[in-house]
Design brief:
Elements lengths: L1 E5 L2 E5 L16 E6 L6 E4 L2 E5 L4 E6 L5 E5 L2 E5 L6 E7 L5 E4 L6 E14 L2 E13 L3 E7 L2 E5 L2 E5 L4 E8 L2 E7 L3 E2 L5 E12 L2 H6 L5 H17 L4 H5 L18 H20 L2 E13 L2 H100 L4 H19 L11 H22 L1
Antiparallel strand pairs: 1-2, 1-3, 4-5, 5-8, 6-7, 6-9, 10-11, 11-12, 12-15, 13-14, 13-16, 17-19, 18-19, 19-20
Helix pairs in contact: 2-4
Protein name: Band 7 domain-containing protein
Length: about 450
């Protein structure tokens, strides 16, 4: 898009092409001022103002009467005959530069950005806020004041241009917690003590808190907590406070012990008073605990010495217990090793005995099988021999020829001589020869018996 100054008035060339310099009347009182992009966000030329913003962008514009208006996700074109339309700023509403945090808890409340305009008064120039942009995340809210009324704004992207509307604060509606030290409080016997307490709360009615003029819930709870704790501690003795260190769900007692007066007083009075006081500011107190207390002065010095001695004694006792425990564990380990060795020896002896028994059983079984086999073989051989003799006898009995029988006897004689030798003398078992042999044997035996008696 081309820009031409025609006698102080803006001319715009929107068609691309070549524009000749002749005749000169075409350029009489006209000055070529350059080109600009059609998609530029802001174009300002000789009173002509063009603004076009995309999604999540916003343009803050001041008209010739110093009225402020905001253009979001659109655009406009204006020509001012008197004065100008000034584009003060183009803001990315999703990425505002100023981060707002709660100083006490560090919780992110949102993001803000202020658009200013310069105004000259005499020789000095100052900047004044024309618009305030807010980006409030979920579960948070903002409080604005319009006249004498307070308005609650929810989460989202907001912009304030009305000079009658003032931002009072941004608050979180989620749970918050903090550890808070208190100022020195004197007990009934004038012993100074400083407490460190734990607070947990949730803001449910931000308008009530803003009505009382507190910027954060912590500011309201801090003053009220200090006041209530001062009233309670000032009625307690040092001896009652020294016996208890903290207040929490794990050490709440039934109140029968006289040494729990400090905790009972905090539990019954501080919680009730704090809860009731917090409701006045639109705050729900969910937890209160004293996590530490510190005595000051000579009492504190003496108590530190006693505490140090007690801790040293506890450390020494713990070291002795640890050494004893280590020795016991070593002895137990040695006993376990010895027991394992004995079990291993028993197992080895059992396996050796089982091996010997198994070998003996195997040998006995082998001998039995061999004896049975040999007996069976002998029986079979005897049966075979008996069968052979019987068969041979049957065959011999069937021979009826006398000559054949005689020849068989001769063959037996030949076999006997062949078996025992040619010099063997065969004595018949029956007849006179046999009787003579028996008599000689009896006489020889009698003679041998007489010699043995001598």
């Amino acid at each position: 898009m081309g820009l031409i100054n025609h006698g102080g008035l803006p001319k715009v060339v929107t068609k691309a092409g070549r524009y000749p310099g002749f005749p000169l009347r075409n350029w009489w009182a006209r000055t070529w001022c350059g080109t600009t992009g059609l998609s530029d966000t802001v174009i300002e030329f000789q009173g002509l103002t063009v603004v076009q913003v995309s999604q999540n962008q916003a343009a803050v514009v001041s008209d010739p009467q110093n009225h402020i208006f905001v253009i979001k996700n659109s655009g406009f074109v204006a020509f001012a005959i008197e004065g100008t339309y000034d584009v003060l700023s183009v803001v990315d509403m999703t990425h505002l530069p100023t981060l707002v945090k709660e100083q006490s808890t560090g919780v992110t409340l949102g993001w803000t950005h202020e658009v200013t305009m310069k105004s000259k008064m005499g020789s000095t120039t100052k900047e004044y806020v024309m618009a305030t942009f807010l980006n409030i995340p979920a579960n948070n809210c903002a409080i604005v004041q319009r006249g004498d009324d307070l308005l609650l704004l929810g989460a989202g992207q907001l912009v304030i241009t009305n000079p009658n509307v003032t931002l009072r604060g941004i608050y979180t509606l989620g749970e918050s917690q903090i550890e808070m030290p208190t100022k020195d409080i004197f007990t009934r016997d004038q012993v100074p003590v400083s407490l460190r307490i734990y607070l947990k709360w949730q803001l449910t009615e931000p308008l009530r808190l803003a009505t009382h003029g507190y910027a954060t819930p912590y500011d309201a709870l801090r003053d009220k907590t200090q006041s209530i704790l001062t009233q309670i501690v000032s009625h307690l003795d040092y001896s009652a406070m020294i016996k208890q260190r903290s207040l929490g769900p794990d050490n709440m007692e039934d109140g029968t012990d006289m040494s729990s007066a400090f905790l009972d007083a905090l539990r019954t009075r501080a919680m009730d008073d704090m809860h009731e006081a917090a409701l006045e500011y639109g705050i729900v107190l969910k937890d209160l605990a004293v996590i530490d207390r510190q005595f000051k002065g000579e009492i504190a010095h003496t108590m530190d010495k006693l505490t140090t001695r007690a801790l040293q004694a506890q450390i020494e006792a713990a070291n002795v217990d640890r050494e004893n425990s280590n020795k016991v564990k070593q002895e137990q380990g040695a006993l376990s090793v010895a027991r394992i060795k004995v079990q291993a020896s028993n197992t080895q002896a059992d396996s050796e005995a089982y091996r010997v028994i198994a070998a003996a059983k195997a040998e006995a079984e082998r001998t039995r099988i061999a004896a049975e086999a040999q007996a069976e073989a002998t029986r079979l051989a005897a049966n075979a021999e008996a069968d052979a003799i019987m068969t041979k006898a049957q065959a011999d009995s069937q021979v009826v020829d006398m000559f054949a029988r005689e020849m068989q006897l001769r063959r037996v004689e030949v076999a006997k001589v062949k078996a025992y030798g040619s010099k063997t003398i065969f004595v018949p078992s029956d007849g006179p020869g046999a009787q003579m042999g028996n008599a000689m044997a009896v006489g020889l035996a009698a003679g041998m018996g007489a010699d043995s008696r001598r």
